Amino acid sequence: MNQSLNIFRHIVVAEISKLKGTFASWLTLIYPLGSVMLVSIFWISMRNNKDINSETLVNNLGNISSFFLPFFIVLIISFACNTDHKNIMLKHILALPVPRHLYYFGKLTGIMFFIGTAFILTFVFAYCSVFLCGFISTKLGFGVSFNHGMLFKIILRAYVSCVAIYSLQFWMGMRLRNLTLPVAIGSSLIVLPIAVLIIMGITGLLRDSRHFVNIITYNPYSNSFSSGFSMTKAGDIPFFSTPIYFFILISVISLIAGAWEFNRRNI
């Protein structure tokens, strides 16, 4: 048991070290910084609006961050998996006396370190932005009514709602030996429901807006930003809901199936 944990720890540390200074590190910085910058520009442009308040700012940040999060996850996981394929490192690693399932779970854990870092940086940049915007207008600053708990809940819920993407995209990235195909499939799964529903709405096939929201909500790749399309405040969305439980089940099944398939695969 101790030996397995030690091997797992070494795999995680090696994966983190391998991805440091690569495009994965830049993605970890660009996603939270870009999301906060977009909202900050909107905040500043709306500073003279009488209805602007801290709750609006928090919901805007939640909606923007939630929309770009699936794209960030698809890109960083696909890139991290491709680093092993493009330099034939995977064959060398699996030639070593390392249990394949430990390598599979350890590599995913190493990637999740960068995703977790992006989660933390989102708050760091958000608070820096609110602090600086407070100098421009007091309505844009923290004030006495800034809801720190709601900000944490909204961002955390977005990451939890993407639970199925982590394991599905990782399995796809480890199975497909190039970068383009996993990114294309993942991005299509994010955008396709929106595109199809827009076309159905234009052609008159979709008359009830609830069906529009339901299809996005029950898609594991687009659930994180479903509140933006339902016109519901991100803070009013329940943290755990039926789709989230379903996505957790999908994540566990795909993670186990992916490890089983990787263990039997002929590299």
Summarize the structure.
The protein has 267 residues and is mainly α.
Verbal overview:
The chain is mainly α and 267 residues long. It has one domain (2-264). The chain has helices at residues 2-19, 23-45, 54-86, 89-94, 100-136, 148-161, 163-175, 180-203, 209-217, 226-229, 242-264. It is globular and about 65 Å long. The relative contact order is 0.14.
Q: Which labels suit this protein?
A:
mainly alpha; 267 residues; single chain
SSE blueprint and pairings:
Elements: H1 2-19, H2 23-45, H3 54-86, H4 89-94, H5 100-136, H6 148-161, H7 163-175, H8 180-203, H9 209-217, H10 226-229, H11 242-264
Helix pairs in contact: 1-5, 2-3, 2-5, 3-5, 3-6, 3-7, 3-8, 5-11, 7-11
- Overall pLDDT, averaged? 83
Number of helices: 11
Q: What low-confidence regions span 5 or more consecutive residues with pLDDT below 50?
A: none
Radius of gyration: 20 Å
Classify the beta-strand content into a percent band: under 5%
- Which class of secondary structure composition applies to the elements? mainly alpha
In N-to-C order, the SSE pattern is HHHHHHHHHHH
**CA distance, first residue to last residue:** 27 Å
Q: Helicity range of the residues?
A: over 70%
Name the shape in a single word: globular
How many domains, as an integer? Answer: 1
Described by strand count, sense and barrel closure, the largest sheet is: none
The total count of strands amounts to 0
